[in-house]
């Protein structure tokens, strides 16, 4: 074959690949996830969610949003909500969420979330909501007089967040599995009540209205525990800031928190001992921050005392978080850039959400506008 023929073949292959690649993107499975802008984003949010997103965005169609509507289910500071929302968005980007691969937006900027929640509420049995563990726990702590209806119904909003985008997979920690199960049940219920032939008779395409999403639980880091209690999850709502490493904590604060964190009297370091929850938690954090395997960390740390290990962990945390903190400061100092990112993300998300919402209105028999 002569040179010109080879060039022609190469060009044809290149054209076929360029035509095929966009089609392959269309068939990527979709993932949606988000974090509330309440309190400081901490290591548990990062290792349990955001860090995982960075890997997922390379293989999936991803939408990551700041769930500000969920932030008002309990009493909150109205003066801080907007600032915290922007700060959370900046942390997403600083951690490595790539806007060329993922849509980043604010939940309340896509109004379809609230509209779909109302429609889904009409199909949600009250008994399903009464059994939700987090509602029972939070309402017991807050007291009936301080609990709004939103605390009971926010799992329906969470279902709306997921179903709006015809999500295939949802990254969840162990504590969110019950909410995702409700979402799956609700999707199946609405599909049964309004989908299939019933929808087709109303002029729709028929079939399922919603995809029924599957859980995606990371193999490690899905549940980072408190620094003061190895049996409790690291949480924004814990009264003591000493219980968590915040992503924007300065070097000296990180060092102080690790120095003072709860340990035990056993010698050496080991994973998975039921008698040593704090040891397992701190080793797991080091493993995830360092990027080493569990076996490598176990071998490296097995003969260390607590003082040596705490120094090692502190240095690893500071080194890992420093570039995130620097990038965050750059982003938060450029509000026009951040607003542009959020505006573009909301536009992309709304295009998907509005199509779903239109189908639901049609299937439920509303007058077409």
Automatic annotation (TrEMBL):
Its EC number is 6.1.1.2. GO terms for cellular component: chloroplast; mitochondrion. It catalyses: tRNA(Trp) + L-tryptophan + ATP = L-tryptophyl-tRNA(Trp) + AMP + diphosphate + H(+). Keywords: Aminoacyl-tRNA synthetase, ATP-binding, Ligase, Nucleotide-binding, Protein biosynthesis. Pfam families: tRNA-synt_1b. Its main location: mitochondrion. It comes from the Eukaryota. It is found in: Mitochondrion. Belongs to the class-I aminoacyl-tRNA synthetase family. This is tryptophan--tRNA ligase. It comes from Gossypium tomentosum (Hawaiian cotton).
């Amino acid at each position: 074959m002569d040179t010109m023929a080879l060039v022609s073949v190469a060009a044809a292959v290149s054209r076929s690949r360029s035509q095929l690649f966009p089609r392959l993107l269309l068939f990527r499975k979709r993932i949606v996830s988000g974090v509330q802008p309440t309190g400081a984003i901490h290591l548990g949010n990062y290792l349990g969610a955001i860090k995982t997103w960075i890997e997922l965005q390379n293989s999936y169609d991803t939408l990551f949003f700041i769930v500000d509507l969920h932030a008002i289910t309990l009493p909150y500071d109205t003066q801080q909500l907007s600032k915290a929302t922007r700060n959370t968005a900046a942390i997403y980007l600083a951690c490595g969420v790539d806007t060329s691969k993922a849509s980043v937006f604010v939940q309340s900027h896509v109004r379809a979330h609230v509209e779909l929640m109302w429609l889904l509420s009409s199909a949600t049995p009250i008994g399903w909501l009464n059994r939700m563990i987090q509602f029972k726990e939070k309402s017991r702590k807050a007291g009936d007089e301080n609990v709004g209806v939103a605390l009971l119904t926010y799992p329906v909003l969470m279902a709306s967040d997921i179903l709006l985008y015809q999500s295939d997979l949802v990254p969840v920690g162990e504590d969110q599995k019950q909410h995702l199960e409700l979402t799956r049940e609700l999707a199946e219920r609405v599909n049964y009540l309004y989908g299939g032939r019933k929808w087709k008779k109303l002029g729709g395409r028929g079939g399922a209205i919603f995809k029924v999403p599957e859980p995606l639980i990371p193999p490690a880091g899905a549940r980072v525990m408190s620094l003061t209690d190895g049996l409790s999850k690291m949480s924004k709502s814990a009264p003591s800031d000493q219980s968590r490493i915040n992503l924007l904590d300065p070097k000296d604060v990180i060092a102080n928190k690790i120095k003072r964190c709860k340990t035990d009297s056993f010698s050496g370091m080991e994973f998975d001992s039921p008698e040593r929850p704090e040891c397992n938690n701190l080793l797991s954090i080091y493993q995830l921050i360092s990027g080493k395997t569990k076996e490598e960390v176990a071998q490296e740390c097995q003969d260390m005392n607590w003082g040596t290990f705490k120094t090692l962990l502190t240095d690893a945390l500071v080194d890992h978080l420093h570039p995130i903190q620097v990038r965050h400061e750059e982003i938060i100092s450029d509000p026009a850039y951040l607003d542009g990112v959020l505006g573009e993300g909301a536009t992309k998300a709304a295009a998907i959400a509005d199509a779903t919402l239109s189908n639901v209105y049609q299937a439920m028999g509303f007058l077409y506008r």
